[in-house]
From TrEMBL:
Residues 100-123 are annotated as: Disordered. Signal peptide: none annotated. SUPFAM superfamilies: Winged helix' DNA-binding domain (SSF46785). Residues 18-65 form the HTH marR-type domain. Keywords: DNA-binding. It comes from Actinomadura citrea. Gene3D superfamilies: Winged helix-like DNA-binding domain superfamily/Winged helix DNA-binding domain. This is DNA-binding Lrp family transcriptional regulator. It holds the Pfam family MarR_2. GO terms for molecular function: DNA binding; DNA-binding transcription factor activity. InterPro entries: ArsR-like_HTH, HTH_MarR-typ, WH-like_DNA-bd_sf, WH_DNA-bd_sf.
Length: 123
């Protein structure tokens, strides 16, 4: 029995790596727990921890221990790693996906039940 030919758009690839997704998640909320990062992105906690360690070792993140929690600072002036993009820093990526720069205390936008940003409330 022959199966239908596989369409090219069925391949499971994406434009962003998990490293980029972790960096963006932390830029949105510098106080996220590793568990929350993993859940938001759809990876294991161990994978999230390894990626955070990679980003710290490469200088993209700085970790500060506050009590039992970690708070991260994104060093957004670091360049992309690939030579083709090395003349750009990650600030542009963060701004593209968060709508703002990587400020250490930036609050994460509220999300509705669908995961979309909650509508702004007027006072």
């Amino acid at each position: 029995m022959e199966s239908a030919p596989r369409r090219r758009d069925d391949k499971p690839w994406t434009f962003l790596t998990n490293h980029a997704r972790v960096l963006i998640a932390i830029a949105r909320d510098p106080g996220l727990r590793v568990r929350d990062v993993a859940q938001d992105i759809g990876i294991t906690e161990r994978a999230a921890q390894l990626i955070i360690t990679d980003l710290e070792e490469a200088g993209y993140l700085t970790r500060t221990r506050i009590g039992r929690r970690n708070r991260y600072t994104v060093n957004a002036d670091r360049p992309f790693r690939h030579p083709a993009e090395a003349d750009h820093d990650v600030q542009a990526l963060i701004e593209l996906f968060t709508g703002r720069g990587a400020s250490p205390g930036a609050a994460r936008p509220s999300r509705g039940a669908t995961g979309a940003p909650a509508p702004a409330r007027s006072l």
